[in-house]
Amino acid sequence: MVSLKEQTTDWDIVYESDKLCVINEPLNKVIVATSGSANGKGRSHKTQCYIYCEKLDYKLHRHLEQQHSNEIEVAKILNMPKRSKERKQAWAAITAKGNNLHITKVKEKGVGILIPKYRQSKEQDRKKYLSCEFCRMLIILTDLCKHHRICVSKPDRVKSDAPVKNSKLLEACASTEKAGINEQFYKKVVVNIKED
């Protein structure tokens, strides 16, 4: 079983179920996080990436409330009524931003662990995952249509006709964005496809 690792200059930090371990064995490929713990007993906590300090841990909301409450986005979320739909969507958006930042860095380095929205029990090939067009979280290809129906970041009254096709276009545009093409191109392409 693979534990979540973040490569640093001198050592690797391993996030197991409830503790941090330091090991000397470097991670040399891109893998996808699984739901099992390193010792094989039960499920591990799902780690998320904090958008502001870029650390990985599993107590995202508590950390943001205690350490980053002076950030504008977090302050707005804390002022929303608890257990409201808007607050849930805002937490999902800030979680997705942090995880998307982490995923982008892992893909650029070619080394690390990708954080999917829904973790599988067994290790899967990273090529089976695509990003949701609304929340930008990694979803396994077979569950993408199901996720689109319940995605909290999806705007009201928006019908997602071809989620796999749109996600592939999103990834193609993300790779061309480095070459100078921005996301406006993607939005024009998707609008034209949906109108046809």
Can you walk through the features of this model?
By secondary structure, the protein is α+β, with helices and mostly antiparallel strands. The protein folds into two domains: 1-124, no CATH class; 125-196, no CATH class. The chain contains six helices and nine strands. It has a three-stranded antiparallel β-sheet with strand order 1-2-3, with no helix packed on it. A hairpin with a 4-residue loop joins strand 2 (12-15) and strand 3 (20-23). Helix 2 (72-79) runs antiparallel to helix 3 and helix 5 packs antiparallel against helix 6 (183-195). It is globular. It starts with a strand and ends with a helix. 24% of the residues are buried.
Main sheet specs = 3 strands, antiparallel
What is the percent of helical residues? 25-40%
Provide the residue-averaged pLDDT: 75
- Outline the low-pLDDT stretches: 1-13, 15-25
Structure in a nutshell:
It contains six helices and nine strands; from the N terminus they run ββββββαααβββααα.
Main attributes of the structure:
196 residues; 2 domains; three-stranded antiparallel sheet; alpha+beta
Q: Which helices and strands appear, and what pairs or packs with what?
A:
Blueprint (H helix, E strand, L loop, with lengths): L3 E4 L4 E4 L4 E4 L6 E3 L15 E2 L6 E2 L2 H8 L4 H8 L5 H25 L2 E3 L14 E3 L6 E3 L3 H7 L12 H15 L5 H13 L1
Parallel strand pairs: 4-7
Antiparallel strand pairs: 1-2, 2-3, 5-6, 8-9
